[in-house]
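Why does residue order matter? Because the sequence determines the fold. Keep that principle in mind as you read this record.
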Amino acid sequence: MHGYTEDKDSYLKRLARIEGQVRGLARMIEEDKYCIDILTQISAATKGLQAVSLRLLDEHLKHCVAEALAEGGENADEKVREASEAIARLVKS
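Structure:
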């Protein structure tokens, strides 16, 4: 069971909203809307994805990494490495 499983519905609702925002962006382009308005909506969609990713990372640290650390061994090292790499990817994006 993954750490996010209990909040799966919340994640799915948030992602559906973001999906709607992205479809709206495509519609704005099709309708030749003002550039700044499109950029504003891109920023909103990006922030939505960032919020989801931060929540997922938090859940991963609280559950998967904490559990692996309690068990110790190579799995703990692997989970910490995975989390560090995920954080690095998020910082770069």
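The helical segments are 8-30, 35-71, 74-92.
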